């Protein structure tokens, strides 16, 4: 049985009280993971047909489609945090390579929507699906409660990062350190 961390107080029946203290070891582990992922992406660039932004764009399009939402170029630009010029290049490249098509917006004929193709939706037998499978295999053995908690923490961390304004990063820090 693992030792009880000092910041976790037993509450009975094997449960631990939630700590009011920050958990730097979680942030460190996440930084270790993101560094490993970035290094893996650099190693795989020569064999993967899509770049990181391409993959993020396709994931966004597929998520929107599953949710029943339509995606316009501006939506994609905002979601990815890229300029409209970069978005146009991205869309042109994905359309040219058969990953998406442009269609007339059913609610506004002046607008164009982006629709992922079957090629974008088809599970790949290439390196990207191998990487996905390796990551999925690493989650084997987690119970539902553990998996749910990990997902909650990762999403909370993602929201925290998404909420950081670039201007705030240049302001002097007060207090703490």
Could you say what the CATH architecture of the domain at 51-139 is? Answer: Orthogonal Bundle
H/E topology pattern? EEHHHHEEHHHH
What is the structural class?
mainly alpha
**What percentage of residues falls in helices of 4 or more residues?**
40-55%
User: What is the strand content?
Assistant: 5-15%
> Number of helical runs?
8
The CATH class of the domain at 51-139 is identified as Mainly Alpha
The strand order across the widest sheet is 1-2
Characterize the main sheet: 2 strands, antiparallel
First and last CA, distance: 36 Å
Number of strands: 4
Show unreliable segments: 1-8
Determine Rg (CA atoms, Å).
21 Å
Could you tell me the CATH topology label of the domain at 51-139: Arc Repressor Mutant, subunit A
